[in-house]
């Protein structure tokens, strides 16, 4: 379980180009962090995360989309 602050820190680390979104490429560049995201969102892969939670279908995850995924999995403290 993660706090919102921990989740934001993780998101910022994954967002290598600092554009406010985490792309599939950024997720694959950090396999360890991607595993943490998968466990916090109860998804099995970055692709599944995108399919389920990329609400605007732009091919990336914003912090709000990630936060919603973690909240849905009941892992946000």
TrEMBL record:
It holds the Pfam family EF-hand_7. SUPFAM superfamilies: EF-hand. PROSITE patterns: EF_HAND_1, EF_HAND_2. Residues 2-37, 41-76 form the EF-hand domain. GO terms for molecular function: calcium ion binding. InterPro entries: EF-hand-dom_pair, EF_Hand_1_Ca_BS, EF_hand_dom. This is Calcium sensor EFh.
């Amino acid at each position: 379980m993660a706090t919102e602050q921990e989740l934001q820190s993780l998101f910022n680390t994954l967002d290598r180009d600092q554009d406010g979104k985490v792309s599939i490429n950024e997720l694959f560049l950090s396999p360890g962090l991607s595993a943490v995201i998968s466990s916090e969102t109860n998804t099995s892969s970055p692709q599944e995360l995108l399919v389920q939670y990329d609400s605007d279908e732009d091919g990336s995850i914003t912090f709000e989309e990630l936060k919603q995924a973690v909240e849905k999995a009941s892992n946000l403290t």
